[in-house]
Amino acid sequence: MERPQLFPLSEGLELTRLERGEEQLRLHVTSTSRLCPCPLCGQPATRMHSRYRRVVKDLPCAGQQVQLILHVRKFFCDTADCVRKIFAERLSQLVAPWAQMTTRLCQAIQAIGLATCGRLGARLVSHLGIAISWMTVVRRVMALPTKPAGQVQCLGIDDFSFLRGRTFGTVLVDLDTHRVIDLLPDRQTETATTWMQAHSEITHVSRDRGSEYASAASAGAPQAIQVADRFHVAKNLS
Predict the structure, then answer these.
(1) How many C-beta atoms surround the C-beta of residue 180 within 10 A?
(2) What is the spatial distance between Cα 234 and Cα 231, in angstroms, rounded to a whole number?
(3) HSE-up of 144 (CA within 13 Å, CB side)?
């Protein structure tokens, strides 16, 4: 009968030693694969150059922090036309290149961040044995790929500030679902016009009373009815 692994690892990785500290568990993991593909040309390499240690954080165990000590190798790439002569083996199923935490820990932080927020998420993970800052939670959420903008009929458009008072962009909102669907790198008329021209299904455009977005809506979505949003109407009246 096959025994289940206490700490599941990807194929080609082996748990060689476990050390228990006062506040965390240290797991020594060694790569056992005989071949390693070059990350540039993809050809398998067998000639080893050297070994090195890589330290990453993993999911906690019973409320204790877990630290992985990865014993990985560097290889020679013997492909003649490959510019990468020496490379470090990739453990893509466990940890991304140059990452300081495992992929599964990153996914757990992203799920907590989406369900809570930065500071609240940091307070929550501290009780689960994960020592990170609130900004780390925010960065992990921001690293998630943005879903492509789908069909939108009622579009809300306004500017926002990347850097207060200096650099501005454009935020686009689906007013039916009240969700942000895209961000544009500036608030120029041409940029907003190009985006609207790709969405011929737009029937209404809610905007401020400025001329830039009015011109963009007229050129990019001439079929749409333009309305001034309630915030800017109230602001102008006051």
Answers:
(1) 14
(2) 5
(3) 17
CA gyration radius, the chain: 26
- The per-residue pLDDT for range 121-175, each reduced to its tens digit, is 889 988 888 888 889 998 888 888 877 778 899 999 998 887 777 788 999 999 9
The SS3 call for residue 167 is strand
DSSP state of 101: B
| Sheet hosting strand 225-228, strand order edge to edge | 179-184, 167-174, 154-163, 204-207, 225-228
Helix/strand number for the chain, H first, E second: 6, 12
Give the integer Cα–Cα distance in Å for 73 and 205.
57
Model confidence over 12-37: pLDDT tens digits? 888 889 888 777 889 999 988 888 99
25, 66 Cβ separation under 8 angstroms? yes
Long-range CB contacts for residues 227-232, cutoff 8 Å, separation at least 24 = 229/156, 229/158, 232/208
Report the Cα 199 to chain-centroid distance in Å.
26
CA pair distance 74, 46, nearest whole angstrom: 10
Amino acid present at 116: T
Options 2.30.30.230, 3.90.226.10, 3.30.420.10, 3.40.1370.10; CATH of 154-237: 3.30.420.10
pLDDT digits (tens, 9 = 90+) for 182-231: 889 898 999 999 999 999 999 999 998 888 899 999 999 999 999 988 87
- Give the start-to-end residue ranges of the domains of the chain: 11-95, 102-145, 154-237
